[in-house]
Write a structure and sequence with these properties.
By secondary structure, this protein is an alpha+beta fold. Helix content is about 60%, strand content about 10%. It is globular. It binds zinc ion.
Length: about 350
């Protein structure tokens, strides 16, 4: 009988160096979660993700890879990782990342300003529903991003056949433009799947039901769902440190700065809208996008938080000539990589 993937997943971490084992301690059995009801949510989520990953479509641009398994990691660090091992492509998210996201989405869902901006009732069940929908979108985005690292063959040195990037923490590792282009590619492919699933696919109906928005017009439903995608992904990006940028330092980051990641993935989201949903693209104006993000920032950060100021500085930098040059190079590298698949 073959060994189940969750056992191989657990063994992988136990075979790492002692310092690595201190950070990644193995598969998490979800017995010690602090948030009530979270275990059931996570088990359902895992089942849904593994079902979706098992029904992967054949795509000519995908590099060949073994079947997927998604699981949770007991760890001291917030992170999401993708690696290939013993006949499987594994995607793992650590429990600290899950708990941080859950807390963050809970905070957003209780913001009266955000509920009102989204046209949602400030009732307890709607607020709870909003927290869950945002959490689901963020986790699907994270998993789709890691999935892309595998199916687009973004391998780096380190673990054999693996990508063990620090998706949240800044470990001081100096990256480069080509690495950033792979992260932008992962974001772009991830948002493409999110748009397809949430606006035109299997997740749409449940999202609208928990928010009690089944009876509004289709266009209003699309607007709401697209706005929720922006809020969830914007919130997730706020977990990473927000560096101040200049024409030199921007090229040394491991991931593009947040404002550039959003810029790059919105290109793909808007292109998806043009193909599938006509004028939804025009309704997601820059002004509306900025309003959503500024509500997210004020729900998550104190007004005097330096990350808030650094984010605004990033936006200003990307509008400068140096910033535009950087964005152009990032886009070119990302598109060249995609064309090479
Ligand atoms: Zn990544």
């Amino acid at each position: 009988m073959s060994t189940p993937p969750e056992v191989l997943f657990d063994r992988y971490f136990h075979a790492q160096t002692p310092s690595m084992q201190q950070i990644y301690q193995g598969k998490d059995d979800l017995e010690c979660l602090e948030i009530p009801g979270l275990k059931e949510i996570l088990l359902r989520l895992q089942q849904g993700l593994n079902f979706a990953l098992a029904n992967e479509r054949e795509v000519p641009e995908h590099r060949s890879h073994p079947p997927f398994h998604f699981d949770y990691i007991r760890s001291s660090l917030s992170n999401a990782i993708a690696f290939r091992h013993d006949g499987y492509s594994f995607i793992g998210v650590t429990i600290p990342l899950i708990e941080t996201l859950m807390t963050l989405c809970g905070r957003l869902s209780r913001s009266i300003d955000l509920l009102s901006l989204l046209g949602l009732d400030a009732a307890e069940d709607i607020s709870d529903g909003l927290g869950l929908v945002l959490f689901h979108i963020a986790i699907f985005f994270i998993v789709s991003h890691e999935y892309t690292h595998i199916v687009h063959g973004h391998s780096v040195m380190g673990f054999e056949g693996s990508t063990l990037r620090h998706e949240i923490h800044d470990d001081g590792y100096a990256g480069g433009l080509s690495e950033q282009a792979l992260e932008a590619d992962a974001d772009s492919y991830a948002i493409y799947h999110i748009m397809g699933n949430w606006i035109a696919g299997v997740e749409r109906s449940e999202g609208l039901t928990v928010l009690n928005r089944n009876t509004i017009s289709l266009a209003d439903q699309d607007d709401l769902l697209f706005s929720l995608v922006v809020v969830a992904i914007g919130a997730y990006f706020m977990l990473r440190p927000v560096p101040q940028l200049d024409a030199e330092s921007v090229y040394k980051l491991s991931h593009p700065p947040q404002a550039a990641r959003l810029n790059s993935l919105m290109d793909t989201a808007i292109a998806w809208c043009r193909q599938n949903r006509g004028d939804l693209a025009q309704r997601m104006t820059e002004q509306w996008f900025n309003r959503l993000l500024s509500h997210v920032a004020s729900a998550i950060w104190e007004a005097n938080d330096s990350r808030h100021q650094n984010w605004m500085q990033q936006v200003d930098f990307l509008r400068s000539a140096d910033g535009a040059e950087y964005l152009g190079k990032l886009r070119t590298d990302r598109d060249q990589y995609r064309a090479s698949l």
